[in-house]
Design brief:
heterodimer; A: 307 residues; mainly alpha; MetI-like fold; 12 helices; B: 528 residues; alpha+beta; Dipeptide-binding Protein, domain 1; Dipeptide-binding Protein, domain 3; eleven-stranded mixed β-sheet; four-stranded antiparallel β-sheet; 16 helices; 19 strands; transmembrane (chain A); MetI-like_sf (chain A); MetI-like (chain A); transport (chain A)
């Protein structure tokens, strides 16, 4: 098992390298640079800025310099947030995104999973229909609609919860962002669980378990659900990577200092190092979570072995 | 001898008012467009950066609640007869937040620093009126040669290249704010960090968390601290204007310097006086590329201008938050008088359109031989709506417009690099209240701003003449003549004067609408 994990991690290095290389050159194709403002700069000032940020060097040299600093864990200075390095920005923002994302993930798994199981057990009955209708709505309404509606209702009209702001991570400020992040995930998890649960309930091993006279709980939870979770897990891998690295929409609407916004801010401001930093972080998360998914497979499905 | 003597009387008067409310901490929650790129005043260029820096630092001159320039660290000044030498007397009680006195040497250091090309100051050129500033900034002279000299700790002498009537206003701009030399020497670029920063304004920096907030607290060493009623200001970046409105409605922020224009009706109805629109020192315009063959014909440019229904744009597209614009220089500006309006300002829209159609026809364009134009704008819902509306207004004249939308960086990079375009959206907010700050945009030796590639020696000559004129009335009439030429030649097509839109809670006192939209927190108070 350890050998397998090590092998996977090693094989991730060329993948990462490729991602870094492609993104490095892609972002440079975008017209304009980090210092193009509505107010143009004096040529001399532009020259000095370029020198300070090493943009005056040939592109291949910049690329090698970036790789070198990246290898030592240094993402470089931000071109837009000039008082911060990318490492400082991530040190501040990433824990916040992870905290919100993981809470949303757990919420989605518990609520969505329970809804899916319930729907499967009550297949083609009113409970099933209403859960699936709710799930369809959950998937189709985008979060930039849900978030303002929730804040209007619970923040502005009822005054129960704050409309925005992080407030140093106060629980009250986290509720709405977590719910907004979790809603579409709940819907997807519910649909996936329902589908695979219906299949599992009809499968031979569950029928056998029933025939042996096992209790309903044991049949559903131990025998059916375990197998039924496989598609959910494979969905949750990439979904978790996306959730934990923050959401532009949710962070902007609720005024949360996570790293989700940096993707867009970096791209729009031509903050090359910030874009590269977010790309690397997201790539690492995707790689790690795909590995975790494969490991969880082995736990859930006895047929999967990594020896 | 032409002398200006102004003394700060404010400080002495209100020392007794300190013991009013000793109880709860007064926190002003303030929405502010976006996060600063940096809090290093010399490297900033935007309005939302100025809003924070104005609270942290005080320049030689500063702004009062009405946005007017008043004495700051300098309590008085004298101007030589030729208008070239300014001698500032610094107030004795001006202190840095660590207790150090603010000296003339600090300003010498700061002005040399911003001009030093090594600093990479984006907006150094605004201070080019100072003697040798441009040369220093272009590495053609040593920093010591800059026309700024400390006579003693409390006397500062600044020599200018040419008489500059707006120089006193200029010093209140964020580029004129001092840095604490010892901190800059000790920490380098890190001097802006909350743990290192030393400032001389009404507030000091405590926290800067990007995308969350900037927290500043009252500076007890500020010479007018007795008068500052706010203990803490929390600045929030409010990029999402809809979200900012909801936070305002919920009472989480006391003010925001923008609001969703598409909800103007709703805001007027529900917020009443808390929704504010005030004239603003800015012009929204379209640059017309004079290198384009069709657009090089002045009649074509005039026709395009006449056919735009500016009232419709201001009312329907911008919800009354902008004002129809018939001149490049916005009305109400200092050192000027009435701007030079387009001569069709008082014609009805129908008459204008008729005239425009005639002009274009005479130029050889019409339904069977359409004038094809590419109109470029940077991403924004209202820029798009404006462009669509204008394309529609031009259509009956036989103008076929294709719209091209790009993000802001791409848009301005194309204009800067003299890329190929016909018509491009742009806007200009004045840095100081003087017509020169609008008319210099299209001088032929100003390639960075002269998107139109306008080149008129007569215009340049008038601008040079104005720069050398000390008599304010005479100068105003020269500049007005220049603007008349501008309106005849139309390098830019002025469309609207900006309005400033703000949400201001009825609990927040001391926010006074003004042309420059400057609102220092030190003059505000909050009713509990």
């Amino acid at each position: 098992m350890a050998r397998y994990i090590l092998g996977r991690l090693l094989s991730a290095i060329p993948t990462l390298f490729l991602i870094v290389t492609i993104s490095f050159f892609l972002i440079r194709i975008a017209p304009g640079g980090p210092f193009d403002l509505e107010r143009p700069l004096e040529a001399k000032v532009m020259e000095n800025l370029a020198r300070i940020y090493q943009l005056d060097k040939p592109l291949w040299q910049q690329y090698l310099l970036y790789l070198k600093s990246l290898a030592s864990g240094d993402f470089g200075p931000s071109f837009y947030f000039r008082d911060f390095t990318i490492n400082e920005l991530f040190a501040e923002g990433l824990p916040i995104s992870i905290q919100l994302g993981s809470s949303a993930l757990v919420l989605a798994l518990i609520v969505g999973g329970a809804m899916g199981v319930l729907a499967a057990l009550r297949q083609n009955r009113p409970a099933d229909y209403s859960i699936m209708a709710a799930a369809t709505i959950g998937v189709t309404i985008p979060n930039f609609v849900v978030a303002p509606l929730l804040t209007l209702l619970l923040g502005v009209w009822l005054g129960w919860l704050p409309v925005g702001g992080w407030n140093n991570g106060a629980a009250r400020n986290m509720i709405l962002p977590i719910v907004t992040l979790a809603l579409p995930q709940i819907a997807v998890v519910a649909r996936l669980t329902r589908g695979s649960m219906i299949e599992a309930l009809r499968s031979n091993h569950v029928r056998t378990a029933r025939a042996y006279g096992l209790s309903g709980y044991s049949v559903v939870v131990v025998h059916a659900l375990r197998g039924a979770l496989l598609p959910v897990v494979s969905y949750l891998g990439p979904a978790a990577a996306a959730l934990l690295t923050g959401s532009v929409v949710v962070e902007t609407i609720f005024g949360i200092p996570g790293i989700g916004r940096y993707f867009v801010q970096g791209a729009l401001n031509r903050d090359y190092t910030l874009v590269m930093g977010t790309v690397v972080v997201v790539a690492v998360f995707v790689i790690v979570f795909n590995l975790i998914v494969d490991l969880v497979y082995a736990l859930l499905d006895p047929r999967v072995r990594y020896d | 001898m032409f002398t200006v003597m102004r003394t700060g009387l404010l400080a002495a008067a209100l020392i007794a008012s300190t013991a009013l409310t000793a109880s709860a901490e007064v926190v002003y929650h303030r929405g502010n467009t976006a996060d600063p790129e940096t809090l290093d005043q010399h490297k900033t260029s935007t309005i939302y950066e100025a809003n924070v820096l104005r609270d942290l630092y005080e320049g030689l001159t500063t702004a009062n609640a009405k946005g007017e320039t008043v004495p700051g660290v300098a309590e008085s000044w004298m101007i030589s007869d030729d208008g070239l030498v300014y001698t500032f007397k610094l107030r004795a009680d001006a202190k840095w937040s660590n207790g150090d006195p603010v000296t003339a040497g600090d300003f010498v250091y700061s002005l040399q620093r911003i001009m030093n090309p090594e600093t990479g100051a984006k907006y150094a050129n605004i201070l080019f009126p100072i003697k040798n500033a441009e040369k220093v900034n272009k590495s053609e002279a040593k920093t010591e040669e800059l026309g700024v000299k400390a006579i003693d700790d409390h006397t500062l002498e600044i020599t200018l290249e040419a008489p500059t009537p707006y120089f006193i206003d200029l010093l209140a701009h964020q580029t004129g704010l001092p840095v604490h030399p010892a901190s800059v020497e000790k920490y380098g670029a890190e001097f802006v960090k909350p743990e290192n920063i030393v400032s001389n304004g009404a507030f000091v920096l405590k926290e800067f968390v990007p995308n969350s907030h900037i927290k500043v607290t009252k500076n007890e060493n500020f010479h007018d601290a007795a008068d500052v009623k706010i203990d803490t200001v929390m600045f929030y970046p409010t990029e999402d204007r809809g979200a900012a409105l909801r936070r305002f409605q919920a009472g989480e922020i006391h003010s925001n310097n923008d609001a969703p224009v598409e909800q103007v009706k709703f805001m007027r109805e529900t917020l009443g006086d808390q929704f504010r629109v005030a004239p603003y020192l800015g012009t929204y315009y379209y640059a017309l590329n004079h290198k384009d063959e069709a657009l090089s014909n002045p009649d074509v440019r005039q026709a395009l201008s006449m056919a735009v229904d500016r009232e419709f744009l201001a009312e329907e597209i911008w919800g009354g938050t902008m004002v129809p614009g018939y001149s490049m220089v916005p009305p109400g500006i200092g050192n000027y008088g009435e701007p030079a309006y387009a001569d069709y300002k008082d014609l009805s829209q129908i008459d204008r359109e008729e005239k425009a159609a005639d002009l274009l026809k005479a130029a050889g364009f019409g339904a069977d031989h359409p004038l094809k134009l590419e109109l470029r704008y940077n991403t924004s819902e209202n820029h798009k709506n404006t462009a669509v509306a204008i394309a529609d207004m031009w259509k009956p004249l036989g103008v076929e417009v294709s719209l091209v939308n790009t993000d802001t960086a791409t848009h301005y990079a194309l204009l800067r690099d003299k890329g190929d375009f016909d018509v491009a959206r742009a806007g200009w907010i004045g840095d100081y209240s003087d017509p020169q700050n609008f008319l210099f945009l299209v001088e032929s030796d100003n390639p960075g701003f002269n998107y139109a590639n306008y080149n008129n020696p007569d215009y340049d000559k008038l601008m040079d003449e104005a720069a050398a004129t000390t008599d304010l009335e005479k100068r105003a009439s020269i500049l007005k003549h220049a603007e008349e030429i501008f309106m005849r030649d139309l390098p830019f097509l002025p469309l609207l004067y900006y309005g400033s839109i703000s949400l201001v809670s009825s609990k927040l006192h001391g926010w006074e609408d003004n042309l420059q939209n400057i609102h220092p927190s030190r003059y505000m108070s909050i009713a509990q």
